[in-house]
Write a structure and sequence with these properties.
globular; Rossmann fold; about 45% helix; alpha/beta; six-stranded parallel sheet
Length: about 350
Amino acid sequence: MSKKRIIIQKKDIKSTCWSDAAKELNLGELIPVAGSPMYMPFVLLKYTFTGRLPNAIMFRYLNDYKSLLRTVLRTLTDLTTILIARITGVSVFWICHNVNKESESYHPQLTKLRRKTLKNNSKKIFVLDQLLIEPAIRMLNIGKNNIAVTNFGKVDTFNSSQNKHDSDNAEQTIARIQNWDLYKNRASNNSLTGLWIGSPSGKLLFGLKILAQILEKQKNSKPRLAFVVIGPIGEWLKKVDYNTYVTICNDNACFLIDKQVEIPPHKWSDLCDFIWKPSSDWSVNLTIYNSAVAKLPVIGFTETFFGQFITHYGLGIAINPKPFIAENLIEKIKNWSPNKASLFIEQNTWQKGAKKIFDAL
């Protein structure tokens, strides 16, 4: 029997982990496509003409670009990939990372066309947890038979592309934070520190705005929450929300490290008491898994899917940000148990996720 083969959009930590797990379990080849997603039709043609026709090609993110020309080209290459797949008998899969919308969409009509075409031509549409099945049925207007579930897993090491310099940067960053006066005195101040790690992204602005509002509301109050914000967000945040940028930069209860620093999750507990990464979209992000590895509660908001998810699995605390009362959250964080987080990591592995992908063939 010939080896099963799936081509998957974008080479990143997620697709690489699924690929390694598939190899480990001898499920077949899961081949991430490096570089631009506009390479997809050419990669499919290459495998077709070299006698290595894949069983499926898997789409993931449908984010577009500020440039209309690039977005039009992306639309054409997506449609061409689907056409080639139909002609050659290759199944189309779609991992719908964000059920309700794309993280970035500058030309919504073209994004809508791409989502609709992909939805109508996908053999299976994957969501990243069983709790997303019903929302996907409703929001995408598809039948339950069209949906499959996969999952992420534990990531607690540096990427293979990283070197000792990256590890040194992580240790230096940890030392800087631990030398921060507010961090050193948090026990005597009865305060807790939250960690936000990320990159510039429209969907992450939601959590940063609330973080800045909390800093403004609790000035000169005790106990209080402090925050460590890590990521190259300064110039981006200054453009998209100047007031939030000013607060995060200037408030003495916030420590901003305005650059990319890779810190393995098992080190997070050296920096903070909880993870601040609330989301308003219908998705499961890798930060949730990393928080569980770190055995730290992640904070979300009630009336969001994110809040529902972390409450259901016991991975954190869902709060109502209006009105926000720091004392209430501090008490809940101190009483939170990591037992369910450990169970979540045991039950959700890259091997399990990879098997679900190949089971859909």
